[in-house]
Amino acid sequence: MSQKKRVFSKTKEAREAATGYIFLAPALILLSIFLLYPMGVMFYYSFTDFYILTPDDRSFIGLDNFRGIIDDAQFRQAFWNTVYFTVIVVPVQMAVALGLALLVNKKLKGRTFFRTAYFSPVVMSLVVVSILWTFMYNPSEGLINELLSIVGIPEQPFLTSPDQAMNSIIAMSVWQGAGFQMMIFLAGLQNIPDHLYEAADIDGASTWQKFLHVTIPGLRNISLFIFITITIAAFKLLVQPMIMTQGGPLGSTKSLVYHIYEVGFNYRDVGYASAMAVVFTVIVLIVAIIQRKLASEERG
Amino acid sequence: MKRKRIIRRILVYMLMIFLAFIFLFPLIWMIASSMKEDVQIFRDMGSLQAFLPPMPGEIEGGYFENYRIAFERADLFRYIVNSLIYTSGIIIFGLIVNSMAGYALARFRIPFAGFWLGVIIATLIIPPESIFLPLYVLVFNLGWVNTYTGLIVPFIANAFAIFLFRQFFLDFPKELEEAAKIDGCSQVGIFFRIIVPLSKPVFATVAIVLFINHWNDFLWPLVVASDESIRTIQIGLQYFMNQEPVEWGPMMAALTVATIPMLLVFVFLQRYYVQGLTHTGSKN
Q1: Which end of chain B has fewer beta carbons closer than 10 Å to its terminal beta carbon, N or C?
Q2: Which residue range or ranges hold the ABC transmembrane type-1 domain (chain A) (predicted)?
Q3: What structural domains does chain B harbor?
Q4: What is the pLDDT of residue A9?
Q5: Exposed / middle / buried, residue A203 (Cβ in 10 Å: 0-12, 13-18, 19+)
């Protein structure tokens, strides 16, 4: 290569790099200002006693906020409520979604209608659904107790009872979300090659054996994807308790994010709320990392 | 054998119809009730009538009386316009910013490209819910509280969208771009004149994903847009719930109105949405 040509290609490379960075810059700058910077600030606040009404009187208090979290009964309750919600919603919603996908994947007449029906709650926003179900769950004049009384089930307290409130929110959340994952499972089912089922038929496999040895392995990647997204979404529980129960009765539906919101926004204790947000972020990160590890191990 | 199959098929259908009822009845009840007076809503609750619209002569003021009342009680029109401004602002700027970033990562030979991709993917894990307080303080200091700028700008850059665009552009045939390069087209020109027009599906998918996510947004509009004039529909709906006594009919009408834009998006654009979802699902 002649000297001249190399210089030419070097400036060309430099120009390409410059253009590339111009393309990339707006996104990087915005992400830095509105995501990474607040993230850093959150860590900084968590070591201070930042109170929104006295922003200039802010001092470094070390780990005091984190020590406070350990003794905070409300935080503990919100934490376990969130864990309970997640641990129930994730398997139930995945099972329901997979069941629905298997049903509408059958070559039956009217399956488009059924698919649309099961998907329809997704079209309503979480806020709309939460308001609607609050009135459906109304113990004395709600639709659900009316329907249950037809089948002979006595009146249930639902959201007004500490024992039933979280389960009522769980039932509604599964109902609202399952149709969405059904669609993803359905796409996964349709990606499983027919010849695998035909081969299983020749070997004389039963329906159950085919499900276990052809369907389930064929859905592995998609299941992991759904598993991770539902888990993280469930951990961010906020809208349902905020609208339906305000965290009650007796704090039985208070979630982590809701608690952080109340402390930071209503009580304006940004320092302490930031410390809780740090804990929340770390938990989400750990869960994400564990799941990713599991995913790569299963693949490898 | 054949009889057994028929019985099984009937059982499957019964299960599917039962499930269809479970998934549909709240929606149907909401729409049916939005046309009734409160007395009728309660009277019908114990029977199938709960899921049927009222008889023609039964209601004073006609089927849309509750809708008229709902729009009168709260400025629903304003809230919906605000939600549309909010979502379309994010979509328009988001499509430009994220597609350019995705293209840069897919096609340009730039130093540290892998590092930046790693950073962008890492930000996917940060739950937006965890940073809303410091973000609020930042937006407050910028003087953006109760402005569209404050609602929209923090959410223009979207790691997920960048990732989707990058995946799409990676699969894009290189020959077209090389031919354009030989013809003397600059890289900026190639992107805007060749790539963008040929990438409508990915732009549609990202636009729909952004619309659905942000139409349903709750926490950020709640904290940053407290002023009535900029309130979004999801926040505005709470007015009907917090009334004492609750007017059920107008509330159902308001809930129905808030659902219509999403319904339209799904009815007309579902194809792109499902494509995009399954694409990411299988890629992950």
Answers
A1: N
A2: 79-291
A3: 2-63 (no CATH), 72-283 (1.10.3720.10)
A4: 64
A5: exposed
